[in-house]
Amino acid sequence: MTAILFYVFAALAVGSALVVVGQRNPIYSAFGLIVTLCALSAIFGLLGSPFIAVLQVVVYAGAIMVLFLFVLMLLGVGAEDRKSGRTLKTVAAVLAAALALEMGAVLVGAAPAPVASFDASTRAVAHVLFSAPYLYVFEATSILILAALVGSIVLARRDP
Amino acid sequence: MSLTPVQQELTIAVVKVVVFFGALLTLFSVMTWAERRLLAFMQFRLGPNRTGPIGILQPVADGIKLFFKEELIPAGAHKWIFVAAPALAVFTAFLSIAVVPYGGTVTLPRWGLLPAWLQGREITLQIADLDVGILFIFAISSLGVYGIVMAGWAANNKYTLLGGLRSSAQMFSYELALGLSWVGVILLAGSFRIQDIVAAQDGPRGLLHWNFVQQVVGFAVYLVAATAEVNRTPFDLPEAETELVAGFHTEYSSMRFALLQMAEYVNMITVAAVGASLFFGGWLSPVPFLPDSPLWFFLKLFAGLFFFIWLRGTLPRLRYDQLMAFGWKVLVPLATINILVTAAVVLFGPGLLASWRRMLG
User: Fold this and answer.
1) Phi/psi of residue B157, each to 5°?
2) What are A114-124's pLDDT values in tens digits?
3) Domains of chain A, each with CATH number or no CATH
4) Is A61 in contact with B142 (CB distance < 8 Å)?
5) Is any Cβ of chain A less than 8 angstroms from the Cβ of B296?
6) A-proximal residues of B, 182-201, CB under 8 Å
7) Domain count, chain B
8) What is d(CA B185, CA B214) in angstroms, rounded to the nearest whole number?
9) Is the ipTM value over 0.90, yes or no?
10) Domain range holding B237?
11) Least CB-CB distance to A54: which of B136, B169, B175?
């Protein structure tokens, strides 16, 4: 049962990710990305981590992608122009091939390790997140986000 | 026929889903009639009273009418998204109410008619008892924006686009206040599970233990943010007919329009149900001498729904800039202060109380 569901959502994630890069219309790409994020969230849920699954939807699919869509619709973008960028395409192809080779090597070389048993309840995740090593990173991230927020307000502000 | 434990669980879940789905659909159609009727009484009119006794069959007539209307897709529309938008709106609306409990657990009686595995079995009166219940509602309601945004954009019409943009801006602004207003309740209960949150409001003095007393600021913020989140008057700017024809659903007709309408009403029911669970003690009885029962939950739910209709009959619509300013400059700071105060009380309250008692004697 879980295995079948995993393959369904994995296929959905990969398929919609292909839509994201393959579509000419940016709005369709954005919708593809939303589906990818939701499928990933379902996979987190299947792995027994409902908290991460829900956060994935709240933060990425629910908040960030709405802003993306908002901007795309407000600017009214049409289909992309794809004539240019021969060198870029070559560079991208080389990089993608390197990445594929690397991932293949990892998959073939290493035996798949069994998933360690862990406590994925909200309480346990919170205890890990708000204790010694991760707490500093967490706080540093919030300062980073605050700086970005202040920066964007300064940039967008029109002087009276 | 004997079922394996997994099959038993699945059977119970399917029955619960079907019953709940049917009840919600019925409640939706009754709501469309009750809203028109009550609004009419508030405005000294009669409202729909021709179909059946006191007009109760009006939803059936409306349903038949919508079924037989022409289904129109505008020539310039993005067909797939235009068709998918109402479906997504309804899907998210029905999904989020699945984690709201309408009662505690009941033990089935040992009647001979029931299959052996059902006799004496404990059943939770809730479709899914998630550990992250309240966050799940938050996640799904944040996905609910897409139904409206897609509907507005796909029709390729300037009014629907403006309606869709307005609603996305409004919904994610007020979602923040909505989420923050829940945090105080979550802090008091120490859990995201809605069952735990309801249980935390139980006490010897009945309704004085409910969260709308302890979390009065959080409740006020929730009330306003929830009304905005489901696009009801005075926050129904996405479909302000004086400015935007009919907002995001201008181009929809027939059953697709009915689906969008259904999503709106189901969202309203969800918001009322969540409010009843989080702030009014769910299925708990308001006075100590009466027993707790799902009936209390439904009573609170109907009171919430009546409140929404009452609001619509009373208040005029806000202006868009007033709406945004109110959301960001009043509700969000208020909710944040509420969280700080609640957290301080939860953290230091017991210690202070104990030292105060020591001082007294």
Assistant:
1) -140, 140
2) 666 677 777 88
3) 2-79+120-156 (1.20.120.1200)
4) yes
5) no
6) 192
7) 1
8) 9
9) no
10) 74-104+130-350
11) B136
